[in-house]
Design a protein that fits this description.
about 15% strand; alpha/beta; 5-stranded parallel β-sheet; 6-stranded mixed β-sheet; 13 helices
């Protein structure tokens, strides 16, 4: 690889509700193909990384390694703690704490972050880097990169990452495939969510064809948790509240978990990420919500809808973002105060019925 990485960032803007245009793909390819041999590349995903964030970033990093990129780091803001379900991912050797990340990389690539705020203390790399590239699939993405590959129709950021690797001539191997498969399965809920299309299953088939073992991956990612987490889930689910009136009578079910809950059961915060799946199955509510305390008076809020409410509108109104049926934001105050703000947004987020 040779040449400059700085000029390809000037591209014609693509409509916000569409996927990447030809100019976006060309600019991204140019950034990566024209890297100088000694270029420093920093890959960053969002705070409290999930399977799509980590899997997309590490899978893409392994692809860049195949292309000959030598000076490369992967990182995320906050404590350098990889959630246990993802500690077997290939490419973890590339991870460094945020405090050790290149201060002025030649190229920064951001994964699964809908806005600059999701990059935490690493946000300044957008200013100090020679160029920036964003890969994402959130409709609420603010297009904060110099080049933006944002496809709201993609089931996961890993879909965008695989498409770019293909354009760069990087074929799938077992390491890349495992990372992208973890990303794809986590963001589609093991292929249960509405974003699961025939194209998603075609991609999954190509990933599986590399020889990765889906049973082992699923047990590690979805079906294994400490007994303390089981006890914690029981306690938190036992305090869940069902409210039939919000969202125009479509219903809201919600619960909360505190830092004291985690400490009492000796659990790390990552175990709470799966809690929303146990809450959202409530038959009497379209909208489900879990508040996870991150600091005194601060909560990471997860919102889900079964199809009658656009929860991304709620999250955007409250400073967050996400997808139509899965979104989140950071709430401040007591749990009751945060939920009261959510209630105030739900009626306006009800999706009108389709015309006959």
């Amino acid at each position: 690889m040779s040449g400059s990485s700085g000029t390809a960032a000037v591209v014609e803007a693509t409509p916000v509700d569409s996927g990447p245009g030809a100019g976006d793909w060309a600019a991204a390819e140019s950034l990566l193909r024209n890297l100088s041999p000694d270029a420093r590349v920093l890959l960053v995903c969002h705070v409290n990384p999930d399977g799509d964030a980590l899997g997309s970033m590490l899978g893409f990093a392994l692809g860049l390694r195949r292309l000959g990129v030598r000076a490369m780091q992967a990182t995320f803001p906050g404590p350098p703690e990889v959630p246990v379900p993802f500690q077997g991912l290939p490419g973890l050797d590339l991870l460094v704490p945020a405090t050790e990340a290149y201060p002025d990389p030649d190229l920064v690539i951001c994964f699964d972050a809908a806005s600059e705020s999701r990059l935490g203390e690493l946000v300044d790399r957008l200013d100090t880097a020679g160029a920036s590239l964003v890969l994402d699939h959130h409709a609420s993405n603010t297009r904060f990169g110099g080049v933006n590959l944002v496809d709201p129709h993609a089931a996961a950021t890993s879909v965008v990452a695989e498409q770019l690797l293909t354009r760069l001539g990087v074929g799938l191997d077992a390491g890349i495939a495992e990372c992208l498969y973890v990303a794809l399965t986590t963001d589609t809920g093991s292929f249960r969510f509405e974003a699961t299309t025939p194209a998603v299953h075609h991609l999954a088939a190509r990933l599986l064809a590399t020889g990765i073992r889906p049973g082992d991956i699923s047990r590690r990612v979805f079906d294994t948790r400490p007994f303390g987490a089981v006890r914690l889930f029981g306690e938190v689910l036992g305090r869940a509240r069902l409210e039939p009136a919000p969202a125009g009578g479509r219903g809201l079910v919600w619960t909360w978990a505190t830092l004291d809950d985690l400490a009492r059961h000796d659990q790390r915060p990552y175990v709470l990420e799966a809690l929303i799946d146990s809450v959202r199955c409530t038959a009497e509510a379209d909208v489900s919500c879990v508040l996870k305390q991150t600091a005194p008076g601060e909560w990471a809020v997860s919102l889900r809808s079964k199809g009658a409410v656009d929860v991304s509108r709620v999250a955007l109104a409250l400073g967050g973002g996400g997808h139509r049926f899965a979104a989140g934001f950071t709430g401040r105050g007591t749990a009751e105060e945060v939920v009261d703000r959510i209630r105030g947004q739900l009626d306006d987020a009800v999706i009108p019925p389709a015309a006959p």
